[in-house]
Design brief:
Blueprint lengths: L7 H10 L11 H13 L4 H7 L6 H8 L11 E2 L7 E2 H7 L7 H10 L4 H14 L3 H9 L9 E6 L3 H8 L3 H15 L5 E5 L3 E6 L14 H12 L4
Parallel strand pairs: 1-2
Antiparallel strand pairs: 3-5, 4-5
Helix pairs in contact: 2-4, 5-7, 7-8, 10-11
């Protein structure tokens, strides 16, 4: 079988991540998109990519590849399902249809309001058809809800160059594990959802995160950075 430049291990990770209902897939949706692009660069057609992972058509492959049109600052927020700190693959692929300069604002709105995939699709359609700004379109979607709940969102930067280089060299699954350990040590009794990218992190909570920024050990972003560096063995 032609693997179009993939190693057997890379192909195994791809096949176990696409079309699977496993709770912990080895690749994130963006990593799947990157793998498909690597195959394309080595001569694979969309149909070849679909056949490699036993998909009937090419539509799903195109949805994956569209994720790479997202602004780099939000790609790490894409996961297989929706959590407090991630946007589901289907919804993220819809958001990629928006102009790139609106991606960060749209992802923030999706996370703070925990928009479903259906609501995200409504948001994108409203934005593209009406030309109204993202804020107005979000409000129009929320008005259709019987009850509106809002989460608090904290977005921070990874400040150490050494840590950024390390995070870029590991998988999203490894970054998630590292972030879970860091957050658990920081606020063990608080229900948080978190996501770590190569150069940024996001923490989501039903509680006001501004209270976590006023600890004795400095601001919240600095404390998270210290713990990430510690858990990565770089401090």
């Amino acid at each position: 079988m032609n693997l179009f430049g993939l190693s057997p291990e890379q192909y195994k990770g791809l096949i176990l991540s696409v079309g699977s209902h496993r709770e912990e897939r080895s690749l994130s949706p963006v990593e799947v998109a990157t793998t498909f692009c690597r195959m394309r660069e080595n001569g694979a057609s969309l149909r070849d990519c679909a056949a490699a992972v036993h998909l009937d058509g090419t539509a799903m492959v195109s949805r994956f590849i569209r994720l790479l049109e997202l602004h780099p600052n939000v790609r790490h927020l894409v996961d297989w399902g929706q959590t407090g700190a991630t946007v589901a693959f289907t919804a993220a692929s819809e958001l990629a249809r928006l102009p790139e300069q609106e991606h960060e604002l749209a992802f923030t709105a999706a996370l703070e309001n925990q928009l479903s995939s259906t609501e995200v699709k409504q948001l994108v359609q409203a934005r593209l058809r009406s030309g109204r700004d993202i804020g107005e379109c979000v409000l129009s979607v929320l008005r259709l809800r019987p009850k509106v709940e809002r989460r608090f969102l904290f977005i921070g930067l990874v400040t150490s160059e050494a840590v950024r280089q390390h995070l870029a060299s590991i998988s999203q699954r490894q970054r998630d594990l590292l972030m879970r350990e860091a957050v658990r040590k920081l606020v063990p009794e608080t229900q948080l959802a978190a996501r770590l990218g190569p150069d940024a992190f996001t923490v989501s909570s039903m509680e006001d995160l501004s209270q976590l920024s006023q600890g004795e050990d400095g601001d919240f972003e600095a404390r998270v950075n210290d713990l990430i560096a510690e858990k990565a063995g770089l401090k």
